[in-house]
Design a protein that fits this description.
alpha/beta, QueA-like, Thrombin, subunit H, 9-stranded mixed beta sheet, globular
């Protein structure tokens, strides 16, 4: 398949720049794959589409203030976005300007609270970086780091918590799992009271979120790996749901990709494990575990648009996106949501 098949025209004013006042009052487009229908709802209406015995699977990763502005010893301004903790104080980072940051280059951040040295240039242009500091790394990040908002958001964020899900727990992401931003504690409580299970996975969102597809044929694109883990108590909830013939519904593409990475080919059952995934889901993929997906509206020609096209069918998704533009839905990270069942 060619990349251009996943292009759609999006007026810039539909790219949401700030979060909506109440998380669960964003709009919700509901797609029914069997009936090929498109419904327009409010996000809190999602509960009407969930049935007792279903299981929602959410990604409880927490975004770290991963964007750092610093200076080289020469005085040149540089920017880092931390992507993945490799080990100890060694991280993988996106750096700008890349041509100024060769192996051995040293950078100072926040009045010398944090220092970094470039150890290696990796194959995809990111850098392996070693940090030195006094104190606790995450506390220093909280002081001098900024939330790594995507490049299409030009407004500054007034409240950093609005770029976290209400259930964010384990620090390590360079971007939020944005489908989860619509849930409130009250809505989650109502969902559980209706008899719907809620299970967690943890996938730390990395560079794949920022990286556009450049290859003409989508099969030639290479996904960056991201670290995940899932605990036994969550595995039990998911497997009980599968065995009872009920639906597993992933909240977001990160939860979906984690489940599809670890699911058994034949049964769709999962097991407690930890690892790295570079799974790339595009049309033709046969889903093993998930039966539905809560997701936002994704960038044209992105791997996320390919993933939802694999689940719902490309023509149906492109028709839904056309309708979303016509109906002036809000797009991308702070935008509206879609439920695919």
């Amino acid at each position: 398949m060619e990349l251009k098949e996943f292009y759609y025209d999006l007026p810039e004013e539909l790219i949401a720049q700030v979060p909506i006042k109440n998380r669960d009052e964003s709009r919700l487009m509901v797609l029914n794959r069997k009936k090929q229908t498109i419904e327009h709802k409010i996000f809190k209406d999602i509960i009407d589409y969930l049935e007792p015995g279903d299981c929602l699977v959410r990604n409880n990763t927490k975004v770290i203030p991963a964007r750092l502005y610093g200076k080289k010893e020469t005085g040149a301004n540089v920017e880092f976005v931390l992507l993945k903790n490799i080990e100890g104080d060694i991280w993988e980072a996106m750096v700008r300007p890349g041509n100024k940051l060769h192996v051995g280059a040293k950078v100072i951040f926040g009045d010398e609270l944090l220092k970094a040295e470039i150890l290696e240039t990796l194959a995809d242009g990111t850098r392996k970086v070693k940090f030195t500091y006094d104190g606790i790394f995450n506390e220093i990040l909280d002081k001098i780091g900024l939330m790594p908002l995507p490049p299409y958001i030009h407004e500054s964020l007034k409240d950093n918590d609005r770029y976290q899900t209400v259930y964010a727990k384990y620090e390590g992401s360079a971007a939020a799992p944005t489908a989860g931003l619509h849930f409130t504690p009250e809505l989650l409580q109502k969902i559980e009271e209706k008899g719907i299970k809620i299970a967690n996975v943890t996938l730390h969102v990395g560079i794949g979120t920022f990286r556009p597809v450049k290859e003409k044929n989508i099969e030639d694109h290479h996904m960056h790996t991201e670290h995940y883990y899932i605990k036994q108590e969550d595995v039990n909830k998911i497997n009980e749901t599968k065995k009872a013939g009920k639906r597993v519904i992933a909240i977001g593409t990160t939860s979906c990709r984690t489940l599809e990475t670890i699911a058994d080919e034949n049964t769709g059952l999962v097991k407690a494990c930890e690892g790295d995934t570079g799974i790339y889901i595009y049309p033709g993929y046969k889903f093993k575990c998930i039966d539905g997906l809560v997701t936002n509206f994704h960038l044209p020609e992105s791997t996320l648009l390919m993933l939802v096209s694999a689940l719902a069918g490309k023509d149906y998704i492109m028709k839904a996106y056309e309708e979303a533009v016509k109906e002036k839905y809000r797009f991308f990270s702070f935008g509206d949501a879609m439920l695919i069942l």
